[in-house]
Amino acid sequence: MGTGGTEPGPGPDAVPPLDRGELQARALSGVRWTALHTVVAVGLGFGVNILLARVLGVVDYGRVAYLTTVITIAGVIAELGLGMAVVQFGTKAHAMGHTEVVRSVLSRSQGFRLLVIAPVVSLTVLLVVRVDPLLMALAIGFGIWLKAALSGTPAALTIENKTAQIAKNAMVVNLLTQVAVVVAALTSRDADTVWISRVTVGALGVVLALPYVSRAYRRAVLHPALPRGFPTGFWRYAVPAGVASILGNLIVSRTEVAFLTWSGNTAAAGLFALAFGLAVHVFSPAQALVGPLIPAISGLRAVDAASLGRALRRTMRASATLSALLVAGGLGPLALLLQPIYGAEFAGAAPVVVALGIGAAVATTGSPLLAFIQARLAGGAVLKLNLAAVVVNLVLIVALLPVLGLWGAVIANLAGVAVRNGLLLVTESRDAQVRLSAALGDVAPLLVGSVACLLVHAVARTAPTGLVTTAVLSAVAGAVLYVVGLRVLHLGLAAPDGAALEASVSARLRPSVRRVLGLLAHRRG
């Protein structure tokens, strides 16, 4: 390993900085491609999850979720906030044209991944996963060490605001990964083997993305340096942000599956895993808009901080309004069709899908706020709000799991999500000088959509019509009730929001998108 350089300056391989217009253009391009990737991934994900549920059964389905949760948390713990700090410090340096600073950060971060993160995750896999030694060697060699050796690749693309390229690459990798998972499920019918195939093939993403990184940054990724001499304030931001990320993962990464598994309630773990996964799939189109925002907002803070308040309100209105539309028109029908699609073993997950889906909508609406709080390097603030949410979550799990079982886990999850996103809304509104009452009005469509969903679903469960007909009618009724609620209460998108959202889709789709957005635009002030 080398030692890397730290001097800012243009240099012969300097990567040109981005102005406000270029930041916005790349963010919109990233949104378009990320949305396309999300549509493809959601379709594939639904299909593969149906197959996994029917082939593995409820207990082994929960086992796959358990392995994913435990090893994801191990990786987050080992990272200590490195990835977030690399993106934040790298994006700001790149926006100001300091190519050498970015190269130094990338090179040193690669050294940390190889010396710290890869060994910790490898040890966790050896302790938790049970598979044939050859499969274990493949998982550790490719899924962990190869990925660690090139993990600076997606970070470099994010720093350069090449989020469109990240999405294109992710589409290819997702397709290959899902094919591998299907083959593993059909040939082995073993949860651990399925998980190994997902991890091993998923590591191809960092390899395929490497050619799209600018030459100066690509050299830094391929030449790791000792993890010392980071920019001033790097670890002061990274460590609190890393601890906050660990706590945040305890809220958003199906940790309840681990508690249900440890308590011996493996069937409930499978039901929770399926319901949680479906909720994530339903809201991934809205969630996908957040990724391109992170480098864009970080760069915006560096070049035009005065516009942050307007950006925050517009982002919150868009995420809340679109997420609530999915709640009103999507969750009820999905719950009705759960048993015929996934099998009788998973029938008990239907009401859990509705509950966790509403929680996922709240989390999706709050996700853009994470981009704002990360852009101001407020690692300590993230740590405090995540700690509060985790305390609430863990206290409720310990208190309710022995009494309520599956529903104890659901209540704990929803409470943690509500606390985390409520605190985020308060802190970021204050920082952006936005009145809390205005911010609450911007996210109020969530309440309208949730009420519409629950009312329609309560009626649909007792409807005499056929299941498919009932599901279609409940989707239409939920969406109509939601739109009427927005109109009566003067909530939803503001007039200028539509143009910004239209710009994120292709020209052919804009007339249709314009009509849909017009139905949702009733916000005043």
What's the SSE blueprint?
Blueprint: H1 20-79, H2 82-95, H3 99-128, H4 133-149, H5 152-159, H6 163-188, H7 191-202, H8 204-209, H9 215-222, H10 234-252, H11 255-262, H12 266-287, H13 293-303, H14 308-336, H15 338-342, H16 350-375, H17 379-404, H18 406-431, H19 436-443, H20 445-460, H21 467-489, H22 497-502, H23 510-520
Helix pairs in contact: 1-3, 1-6, 1-7, 1-10, 1-11, 1-12, 1-13, 2-3, 2-5, 2-10, 2-13, 3-4, 3-5, 3-9, 4-7, 6-7, 10-17, 11-12, 11-18, 12-14, 12-16, 13-16, 14-16, 14-19, 14-20, 14-21, 16-18, 16-20, 17-18, 20-21
Tell me roughly what share of residues is in helical segments: over 70%
Radius of gyration: 23 Å
Please report the distance between the alpha carbons of the first and last residues: 56 Å
**Structural class estimated from helices and strands:** mainly alpha
Task: Give a quick account of the main beta sheet: strands, pairing sense, barrel closure.
Answer: none
Q: What is the chains' assembly state?
A: single chain
Number of helices: 23
The gross shape turns out to be globular
Low-confidence stretches: 5-10
Counted up, domains total 2
How many beta strands in the DSSP annotation? 0
Task: Write a brief structural summary.
The chain is mostly helical and 525 residues long. The protein is built from 23 helices and no strands.
Features:
single chain; 525 residues; mainly alpha; 79% helix; 0% strand
Question: Mind explaining what this structure looks like?
Answer:
It is a multi-pass membrane protein. The chain crosses the membrane at residues 33-52, 64-90, 111-129, 135-159, 171-188, 194-213, 234-252, 318-342, 348-373, 385-404, 439-460, 466-484. InterPro entries: Poly_Biosynth_Transport, Polysacc_synth. Its main location: membrane. This is Polysaccharide biosynthesis protein. The protein is mostly helical. It folds into 2 domains: 13-231, no CATH class; 256-525, no CATH class. The chain has helices at 20-79, 82-95, 99-128, 133-149, 152-159, 163-188, 191-202, 204-209, 215-222, 234-252, 255-262, 266-287, 293-303, 308-336, 338-342, 350-375, 379-404, 406-431, 436-443, 445-460, 467-489, 497-502, 510-520. Helix 1 packs parallel to helix 3 (99-128). It is globular.
